[in-house]
Each structure stands twice: as structure tokens, then as C-alpha cells.
Amino acid sequence: MRALWMTGVLSVLASGCSFISAAGLDECETSADCGSDRVCTPEKLCLPLPLGCGTVYGSQSPDAIPIGGLFPVHSGTGVGAPIDESDEQALNAAVLAVEQINQRSSGGKQFALYYCDTGNDVARAQRQAEWLVKEKKVPAMITAGSSQTLQVAQAVSIAANVVTMSYSATSPEVTDLPDKNGGPVGFVWRTSSSDAIQGSVIANLVRNDARFGAPKKVGILYVNDPYGQGLFNIVSERLDVAPKVENEGDSYTRQGDVKAALDTLNQFDPDLTVLVGFASDVTNILTEAATRPNLQRSVHKWLFSDSVKDVAVLANGTASAQAQGFYGTAPAQGTGQAFRAFQSSFKDRFNKDPSAYAYTSNAYDAMYLLALGAAYSQGTSGAVTGPKLAEGLTKVSSATNNPVQLTSSSFTSLAAELAAGRSVNVDGASGALDFNNDTGEAPSPVELWQVSGNNFLTIETIPAPKTTP
């Protein structure tokens, strides 16, 4: 439809008619001519913003530092698509960070967060990223999830020398992504640790922790995308090491029919199943599993991955009943003042506990880190650019400096140090941010949580394994 519509518009142009009168479109020289809800195209036409974009958080000043925010707040692009509560709260965490940073400013500058709802659509996220880079000239973007982050990075941001900072991309594929674009520093960073860590912890729990009943047969039911595939491969590989634990993987399409995968899983008859997926699918899986004889609570256990930690799952009575008492894993929240200050501010601002969702503290840290990188870029080069911002990120984990809790109160002094070209060592709300400057990621401990009523209780924090597969 879009191609046909544009063909019609171009036909009007060829006929010599005015766009305004014949096609209902305004001509423009720049996007400033089109107002806040439209963009000027290369054909000098004002067209609507990319679907899902249009909201700006933070400063409305034309000289604000623009940061892109690609958040899958809705789990689909169709009318009535449900909200993904974990990513909605991650957006809130980033907004809170912007508000706190702008109360202080950085080098006299404030930040504008250009929010786009990707609707969990990778192609849509790519179009939004292209608009953010080309029209808004963002030096950096916050992204969610492995599929979206990989697509945006490979198709848009790396070639444009724009930093991609993901708060929830955990696929091991991100580690090996060639992201330097001929320069000395990579453009892809993440505040979430690789599933090489989470997968190893899951396998160790299954093998050695009595709470999981020493299962002889383990199913791995996973969403068929880079996140699910990566976690499946890590867990399965670890269970295949002698003494081998028999295991079988079954995949399903996100927002697709889960019945066939559950039928296969039921036939395998596992003692325990590792469930890797997102809230809407997990709700359907647990509801359907209640009708499968070999997946009943009396004979079968679940072990959930990080993305299941979403209160939307517990809002469904059947799914909640199925999940009660079972355990899950997720990157651990921080334990220092940075997390306590974040948790308190988040509760005050949004009346919710961020620890009830996965990756809220990671999204909060992501925005703060980009602001620190921007302070370094502005202070050392007089402008905020992707390459200099990325270089600044290599200065936040100096082992020769004492760790400083990254809070709203410490931001100004940390930004000043970086603006002067000096290194710092920050611990964030999500924990220690000891980045490997070559891969752009930091190892983190793993939280073991348990479903209890309408809540997720943190049971313990498990250190990251010293070696991962």
C-alpha cells in the first residue's frame, strides 16, 4: 500500500500539480518545517513519523543531546496488542534517569530521550532506528532484546558510528559482533550479561541443587529467536557434559501457536523443563500445559528464564497457579546504594517496585552510562559524537580507581571527571559495571527467584561462574 501511495504522489508531481492541493501533503526543506509529528523526506515532503515514534522525554530544547530509545512496550504491532510490563517499566527506569540527569545537566547540556515503541517487530525497530539516526542525529540508542539489538546494530547503528546500548540483549551472539567499524572502540554495549553466564547457572542448578529434584530428563522449551536459541544451546551443551543429563529442546514462534511444541514436550515426558520466553507466550504455555498429563504440577517442575519475570504472567489465574513455588533466574539487581536509591526513587515516581521486573535497573544504568559517555565526549572534543561517546564508555571501569556508586548524587562529579578526560570506576543499580572494553559487556551475578503468590521473591544471588562454555 505504501509503495502504491508514493507512486501516486510522484505521479502528481510529474503532472505539475501542487502536493498541497493534489495529495494533501506539505512541501518542506527540513524536518523543522513539518512540526513535531512529521518528518521531511528526501523528496521534500512532510510525511508522518515512523509508527511507534513521536514521544520525547526530558528536555524539549533544540540544543538538547538526543538519545534514541527503542522499547517494545507493546508485544505486537496490531490494534489491542498487550503491553509488555517488563519493558514498560524499563522505559520508566530510563525516563527516571533522564529526569534526574537533567536536574543537574552535563556540560551545560540536557538530554532528550526520543522514545519509539517497536511493538516487538524487528523490521519496525530498524525503520525507527534509521529515522533516529538520519533525522534526529542521535549519537546513541538504548535498545531491548537480542533480536532487535542485533538487527539495529548490524543494519543501522554500527555503520553510522552510533552507539547501541542494550539493557536486555543477552544472546552470546552479541559478544562476537564485529562492531568497531574500522575504529579502536566498539559501538555495541550492554548492561545485561551474556546468557553464557545465565545458561551455565541454570545447568548447574539442574545438576546439583536438590531443590530441582535431580531430574533424569530435562526439557528446554524456548522461543525461536537469537535469545531463545542462545540460551537453549548453552544449557543443552552444559547438560551434555559427562555425566550427561538427557535433554531435549523444543522451540515455538513468538506470539504463535504453542500447542505443537507442548505436545512434543509432553511426549518427551521430562521431569523438569527450562522455559525460555516472554510473558504473553509463557502465559499461554502454562495455561496449555495444565491440560497435558506429563506436564502436571504433581509430576513435573518448571525452571524459568529471566524474561518470565513479569507480573503479567501472574495476572492470569491458571498460569499463576501453574507457576506457584517454581524457580527462575535473571541477572541480579545490585546490592549497593545505587540500587537502593534507584528503587526508592522509582517507587516514588511510578508507585511500583522495580525489583518485580527483570532489567529495570539495567535500563536505568544504560541511560546513566550514555550520559557519562556524552560528558566525556563533550568535554574532550567539544561535541557529542558516537565515536567519542563510545570512547567515554571505556573510561567507566578503571580498576585503578575506587568504585563509586552511580547515583543521581554522584553523577555530577563523575561527569566532571570524565569531561576532564580522566577515568572513573562506577557500580550501578544493576551491580558492578566492570566492562570488558573489547566486548562492551560486564559479567554479573545471577538472581535465583521464586514465584510466591503475586510476587517474585529473590531467594539468593549466585556468582557468575569463573568459566563459561
UniProtKB/TrEMBL annotation:
Keywords: Membrane, Receptor, Signal, Transmembrane, Transmembrane helix. Residues 1-22 form the signal peptide. Residues 90-453 form the Receptor ligand binding region domain. GO terms for cellular component: membrane. The keyword Transmembrane helix applies. It comes from the Bacteria. It is found in: Membrane. Its main location: membrane. PANTHER family: LEUCINE-SPECIFIC-BINDING PROTEIN, PERIPLASMIC BINDING PROTEIN OF ABC TRANSPORTER FOR NATURAL AMINO ACIDS. This is Receptor family ligand-binding protein.
